[in-house]
Amino acid sequence: MKRNSRLSSTLHILVHMAETQEHALTSEQLATFIHTNPVVVRRTIAGLRDAGIVTSSRGHGGGWQLGRAPEKISLAEISAALGETLLPFGTEPESPGCLVEQAVIAALDDFRVEAERLLAEKLSRITLADLAADFHRRYELIGVTSHAV
């Protein structure tokens, strides 16, 4: 199954923001954490600003910061702000005329509803602080010299 790279990149960025709450991080700095360019960072986290998960400021000393404490940000909120489904199949066929795709969607509908409910429950219980704490623990265990991992 293909992983949701937008969610993965966003979580990567947010964990690093949680680790450096004392100052704002620029799009350029955040881009180094996910090995991309600053435009991708701005596009990736724009919806998070609209949801109040992050804030941004321009000018000297400006950049991106968490909009509230990491303990107050759940993975469910982050996922909702991105507006993407986390499941590998949707409710609408990619090829509307395809009868096989229609049959697969119909066969998996009950499962999809239950999977979405369970996933939403789990994501609402996990916070950004949980991820940051686990990252920090792993970081300390391996003794790396750079946060860009």
TrEMBL record:
GO cellular component: cytosol
Molecular functions (GO terms): DNA-binding transcription factor activity
Stored SUPFAM superfamilies: Winged helix' DNA-binding domain
Pfam families: Rrf2
Protein name: Transcriptional regulator
Organism (species): Mesorhizobium mediterraneum
